[in-house]
Write the structure tokens for this entry.
Amino acid sequence: MQNGKIIAIANQKGGVGKTTTALNLAYVLSEQGKKVLLVDVDPQSNLTMCFGVDRPEELDTTIYHLMMAVIEERELPDKNKYIISNGNIDLIPCSIELSAVEVNLVNAMSREITLRTILQNLRKDYDYIIIDCMPSLGMLTINALAACDSVLITATPQYLSAKGLELLLRTIIKVKKRINPNIEIDGILITMFTDRTILSREILNLINEAYGKQIRIFENKIPSSIKVGESNLKSKSIIEYQPNNKVAIAYNEFTKEYIKNE
Ligand SMILES: Nc1ncnc2c1ncn2[C@@H]1O[C@H](COP(=O)(O)OP(=O)(O)OP(=O)(O)O)[C@@H](O)[C@H]1O
Ligand SMILES: [Mg+2]
């Protein structure tokens, strides 16, 4: 197998569909026979819980332990000690302990490339590695940006109107200059889009004006549905939970669009 593509799903704004997109993109890709690894790099551990782990704090080995091993220059444990599998999808889980890693990163030699060191070893085993970032631009997100080939930005229409993307874009450019020259921005996926409201459409026009020329905005947008929350609670992708739901259909279509130009 060739080296897989590493994708970071990022936005320092909370609640804009990063985790939901990570889970559903992974699911659609796995349905197409791709081998996918999800990496939870958010101490909130939402992705880990969506994967069916009810008590992440009881896990023996999480991304925290792997990052600490790299920082302290210890050998990494065996894959079977930390990877959790569900069908074709694997997960490196996370727990609240990860919040302690940022402090340890500050003085570490490898502070920006700790995650990259871990993922480079796993890359050969997967078609896609998808990193779910936390809502901040701190060291954990910098590590994700340093480790990835490309960034997928998720954003709600409301957030885009606040021009909050600029800081994220500036951070990505900084990482590109200093640490990861090959990083690309895949584009912006609009989530929780309510087409019927004039507001959403106006905002979409604004985004196209502000960013459209330099950054791709995916044609397919993810609508809102209360079923998404339900599916998360059931530890299922929306596609498994309710395949005919508009959000399930949208994630299927978005994934086609996403991988078309690869
Ligand atoms: N398309 C959607 N329609 C309705 N609700 C959604 C949709 N996508 C996500 N949600 C809900 O919105 C909330 C935030 O989504 P999600 O956790 O994916 O965002 P996030 O960006 O990962 O958040 P955080 O920054 O806190 O990690 C969740 O409760 C989720 O169930
Ligand atoms: Mg999240």
